[in-house]
């Protein structure tokens, strides 16, 4: 029995799953997995995720970039004395996990399926914590308490900007359009005069009408988008 256990460990292509979960956090894209609290969060908001999909995600993040075989998942999540349809249960758990992450099997951003072998987490992962979960060379929160973690886009591999920055830029764009529409309506006679200088009468009238309709539709639309940004 001892010889068999030693051989099994020697042939294992991945690190063991049994690590201390205290204080561990994994961040990828817009998501954050808190091992100690047992929570998956997106932009700080907690997502509903059942126990089995959560455990599958935890194991995949433990071995990010490596193949986790279906047999390894079975040994960890479904002990030998558990009577369950393993294939169906694992497929259901992975599907629910993909649904929570907004991922797909055909074009995966996070979880890649390897036919008849297992799964691999392919997005860049930032791991924070101590013990076996922390990679060598990573900067801990204690050593840099004021440094915000850099989260990379799963496809473009560029840093994702802060949400407040993107909201602010989006609001400025809507405000710019709103000003354009208001000025166009205020100077509609000038628009008509300029159009008359190089267009026939009916063309100038059609252009002025187009400007008025566009502004009439665009002003409430931009106001709605500004209110959406304001109320998050």
In short:
The chain is of the alpha+beta class and 232 residues long. It is built from seven helices and eight strands, in the order H-E-E-E-E-H-E-H-H-E-E-E-H-H-H. It has two domains: 2-133, Orthogonal Bundle (Arc Repressor Mutant, subunit A); 163-230.
Q: List the secondary-structure elements in sequence, H or E.
A: HEEEEHEHHEEEHHH
Number of helices: 7
- Secondary structure tally: strands: 8
Helix content: 40-55%
End-to-end Cα distance: 59 Å
Biggest sheet architecture: 5 strands, antiparallel
- Fraction of residues in β-strands: 5-15%
- For CATH, the homologous superfamily of the largest domain is named as Winged helix-like DNA-binding domain superfamily/Winged helix DNA-binding domain
Structure in words:
The protein is an alpha+beta fold and 232 residues long. The chain contains 7 helices and 8 strands, in the order H-E-E-E-E-H-E-H-H-E-E-E-H-H-H. It has 2 domains: 2-133, Winged helix-like DNA-binding domain superfamily/Winged helix DNA-binding domain (Arc Repressor Mutant, subunit A, Orthogonal Bundle), CATH 1.10.10; 163-230. The strands form 2 sheets. It has a 5-stranded antiparallel beta sheet, with helices on one face. Strands 5-7-6 form a 3-stranded antiparallel beta sheet. The longest helix is centred in the last third of the chain and has 30 residues, at 201-230. Mean pLDDT is 76; it is low at 1-22 and 130-149.
């Amino acid at each position: 029995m001892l010889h068999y256990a030693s051989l099994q460990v020697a042939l294992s292509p991945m690190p063991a799953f049994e690590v201390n979960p205290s204080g561990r956090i994994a961040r990828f894209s817009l998501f954050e997995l808190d091992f100690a609290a047992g929570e998956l969060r997106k932009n700080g908001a907690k997502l509903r995720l059942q126990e089995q999909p959560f455990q599958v995600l935890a194991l995949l993040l433990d071995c990010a970039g490596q193949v986790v075989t279906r047999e390894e998942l079975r040994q960890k999540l479904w002990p030998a004395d558990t009577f369950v349809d393993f294939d169906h249960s694992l497929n259901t758990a992975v599907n629910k996990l993909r649904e929570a992450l907004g991922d797909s099997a055909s074009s995966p951003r996070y979880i890649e399926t390897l036919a008849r072998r297992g799964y691999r987490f392919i997005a860049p992962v930032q791991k924070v914590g101590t013990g076996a979960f922390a990679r060598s060379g990573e900067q801990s929160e204690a050593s840099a308490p004021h440094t915000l973690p850099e989260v990379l886009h799963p496809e473009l591999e560029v840093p994702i900007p802060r949400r407040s920055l993107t909201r602010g830029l989006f609001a400025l764009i809507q405000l710019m359009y709103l000003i354009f529409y208001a000025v166009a309506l205020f100077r509609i006679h000038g628009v008509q005069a300029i159009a008359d200088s190089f267009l026939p009468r009916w063309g100038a009238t059609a252009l002025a009408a187009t400007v008025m309709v566009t502004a009439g539709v665009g002003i409430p639309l931009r106001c709605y988008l500004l209110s959406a940004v304001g109320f998050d």
